[in-house]
Amino acid sequence: MPEIIPGDKNFQTIPSIKDKALRINLNEHIYGTFAEIGAGQETVRNFFRAGGASGTIAKTMSAYDKDFSDAIYGEEPDGRYVTESRLKKMLSHEVKLIEERISREKHPNKLFFAFANTVATIDFAKQYLGHGWVGIRYQTNPDEAYSEIVLHIRFKETEAVLQQQTLGILGVNLIYGAYYKHDQPKKLLRYLYDHIDKDKLEIDTINFTGPKFEAVDNRLMSLQLIKNGMTEAVIFGPDGNNILPARILYKKNVLALRGSFRPVTKVNMDMYERSYEMFLKENRVDLKKTLVIFEITLSNLRAEGEIDEQDFMDRARLLCSLGQTVMISNFQEYYKLVEYFSNYTKSRMGLTMGINNLVDIFDEKYYRHLSGGILEAFGKLFFKDLKVYLYPMLDPETGELITSDNLKVHPRMKELYKFFKYNGKLVDITDFNPDILSVFSREVLKKIEQDESGWEEMLPEGVAHLIKEKELFNYKKPAKKAIASK
After folding, report:
1. What is the Cα–Cα distance from 353 to 392, expressed in whole angstroms?
2. pLDDT tens digits, residue range 354-402?
3. pTM here?
4. Distance CA 472, CA 276 (A)
5. Same domain, yes or no, for 185 and 256?
6. How many domains does the chain have?
7. Domain boundaries, position 420
């Protein structure tokens, strides 16, 4: 069989949306359905206008009426329509129909696809900009199982017609990328913004699944969203799949721990466990509605220059192995993190940090870009219903235990520090494990890289085994060490 999906090496410049749609239309093998709800049939419109669409479009539909939509795709348990669940049902239903109605015997080389979106554009009051789910389920070989790309978008434009146009462009970029860039998922991700300014649209969640993306780690794709400026933060669960921030954070009590986690140590887990116990005892904190987030900032990832993606993956893998939810963000300052959470929840929040992190918070140099300086930052940080849980530290020179009571801050910050401490915003973690206070991630990392002993005992159960098995953080297995020494 001749190659059905050729490479894209001949394009030296970004092809126009019309050229992309036309190339899809002129490929005699690509054939599928468009199902678009909520913002017009903006994607398929581009294919009709490009010409030659009769060989590509099996069907196009837009079930705007909710009763019709429920009759076709089934009702959602929560009664909502702009959800990932609705999108998945649309994709499944349309693929099933095309498989039933188009004979494989008559069309053995057809590559079936279903493109779908379910979207809410800006409301009439222009208070809610809108969002949506967009996806494609498709084949690049008629004998293979379907692969899938699903993403969540948030509109930034303030006119519905502009949002519709942007959605249509995004849809063409997604279909084109799915067929001609599936072997380069990082490029596919970047090309979603062809002919779209980043101030028009945010992509905050994307997941690749299926045979074409078996080697794709969706946590790494999360990092690409941040690196490419497509969103400010992404969240993914222990299974490695991206989670929609709005879904997981909505009306939740949030306890966040920021760190490099390079690697995650017993101290990190002690900080989490002790502060979690204290957080659950706070008023208006419901165990069933409480979420713990381990956050890694992009500034930490860039600490040694350009981001080392493998290093990021190593950190994430260890946190996920401990069953944790991980957030990667572009927030250097803590107040931006709190503001981000506040977009989704008004419930009580907590931050767990060590002494060094608190000292940085009271450093004025981080707030020179704000007209109100550190006072503006602290207003944003502590205006919300937030507490900071402070983990103690041993002074490396004197061996003294440093807590909020004897912490030294800049003289100009003393009164501000006292104000927040004595108003109950800063709370010491007292029930800590004193035997592990001398454990630091940087020391563990140094021992691993220099093949020193004793680092295993500094890590949570199972983490050392995973580091050795996967050879994380430059660890080399004994057999390989022996070969190298020869």
Report:
1. 9
2. 998 888 888 887 788 888 888 888 887 876 678 999 999 998 888 899 9
3. 0.87
4. 28
5. no
6. 2
7. 247-436
